[in-house]
């Protein structure tokens, strides 16, 4: 049997294994003991991740304090949650509902969209990179390019019949929020709010809709392996807790579920652009024996071939340039050829 155990003979998604009621997981999903989700020490549990009320930005007296909270969150953690963010509750609920309906479709229907080509603008799959991963992730996903939406929506799933309408409405709202957040993050770095304005408007948005099915042996596997996102920022909407981030001391901290909030994660482009002042967050997803978890992840980056390097305003004698330029396409090339659990793309950019 090869390294993928009993997974290569016929493709079995994590969801179909869960639906079959397997009592143990196939070998190809089992992580080496050192990489399995462990038990927590009390230090990591007591860390409180910032929850930022974006409505405070409208109050002049609270604005600078809120920007400072964002600055500290970006430096310390690379992640924060936002409330009063402007996306309607009904838009979020509808998107999660239609995501659930999609994953409940018969396997044959979803498999029509299956691809292990990471360049495909719409693809259904499992794990991270089916062709390269030595250990698979216990998750199924559908990913689609989403901005500008008119260019891509006709390729999205047509079943369920309301998928394009409901997921499309959420994707557009996430794009609007991303523009606003980028302005605030730039301001927190001391850059002009309109820094890279055109490039961000013309940037890329990939929506990844994830299902983490129930798992009979959650201590042996992960829903997604530790990684950082390639882009500028990622917005995450989730149905329950399961996301964990790595702090500066290499402890894993659970990100609490806050109803109606969105998690904002910084990606590699933001670490490079800030010349290392802000960190892209390493994160993973754990799985659960009793409840499946859904998340909708909106990944934002500059356009496919747009090179991003440190902002020149943030480079001086005390802070020399610390990273090479890179583009989204170069990240995809890296993803094609590497098992990302073995090394970060970002490490290839450090000077």
UniProtKB/TrEMBL annotation:
Primary enzyme class: oxidoreductase
Family named by the database record: Belongs to the iron/ascorbate-dependent oxidoreductase family.
EC identifiers of the protein: 1.14.11.9
Main localization category: cytoplasm
Domain Fe2OG dioxygenase, residue spans: 203-302
Protein name (Swiss-Prot/TrEMBL): Flavonol synthase/flavanone 3-hydroxylase
Highest taxon in the source lineage: Eukaryota
Cited PROSITE patterns: FE2OG_OXY
Gene Ontology, cellular component aspect: cytoplasm; nucleus
Keyword vocabulary terms for this entry: Cytoplasm, Dioxygenase, Iron, Metal-binding, Nucleus, Oxidoreductase, Vitamin C
Compartments (UniProt record): Cytoplasm; Nucleus
Organism: Medicago truncatula
GO molecular function: flavanone 3-dioxygenase activity; L-ascorbic acid binding; metal ion binding
UniProt cross-references to InterPro entries, sorted A to Z: DIOX_N, IPNS-like_FE2OG_OXY, IPNS-like_sf, Oxoglu/Fe-dep_dioxygenase_dom, Plant_2OG-oxidoreductases
Function: Involved in the regulation of shoot development and salicylic acid (SA) homeostasis.
């Amino acid at each position: 049997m090869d390294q993928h155990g009993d997974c290569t003979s016929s493709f079995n998604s994590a969801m179909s294994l869960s639906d079959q009621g397997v009592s143990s997981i196939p070998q190809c999903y089992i992580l080496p003991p050192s990489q399995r989700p462990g038990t927590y020490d009390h230090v990591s549990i007591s860390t409180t991740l910032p929850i930022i009320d974006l409505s405070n930005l409208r109050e002049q007296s609270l604005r600078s304090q809120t920007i400072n909270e964002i600055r500290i969150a970006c430096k310390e953690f690379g992640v924060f949650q936002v409330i009063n963010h402007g996306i309607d509750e009904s838009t979020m609920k509808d998107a999660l509902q239609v995501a659930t309906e999609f994953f409940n479709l018969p396997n044959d229907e979803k498999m029509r969209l299956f691809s292990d080509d990471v360049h495909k603008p719409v693809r259904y799959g499992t794990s991270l990179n089916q062709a390269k991963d030595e250990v698979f992730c216990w998750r199924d996903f559908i990913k689609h390019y989403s901005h500008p939406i008119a260019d891509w929506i006709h390729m999205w799933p047509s079943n369920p019949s309301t998928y394009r309408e409901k997921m499309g409405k959420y994707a557009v709202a996430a794009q609007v929020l991303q523009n606003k957040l980028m302005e605030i993050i730039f301001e927190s770095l001391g850059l002009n709010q309109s820094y890279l304005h055109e490039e961000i408007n013309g940037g890329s948005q990939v929506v990844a809709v994830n299902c983490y099915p129930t798992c009979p042996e959650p201590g042996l596997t992960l829903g997604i392996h530790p990684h950082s996102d390639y882009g500028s920022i990622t917005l995450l909407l989730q149905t329950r807790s399961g996301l964990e981030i790595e702090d500066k001391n290499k402890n894993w901290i659970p990100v609490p579920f806050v109803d109606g909030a969105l998690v904002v994660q910084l990606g590699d482009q933001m670490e490079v652009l800030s010349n290392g002042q802000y960190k892209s967050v390493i994160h993973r997803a754990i799985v659960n024996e009793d409840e499946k978890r859904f998340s909708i992840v909106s990944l934002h980056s500059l356009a496919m071939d747009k090179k991003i390097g440190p902002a020149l305003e943030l480079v001086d004698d005390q802070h020399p340039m610390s990273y090479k330029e890179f583009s989204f396409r170069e990240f995809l090339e890296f993803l094609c050829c590497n098992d990302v659990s073995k090394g970060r793309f970002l490490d290839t950019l450090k000077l």
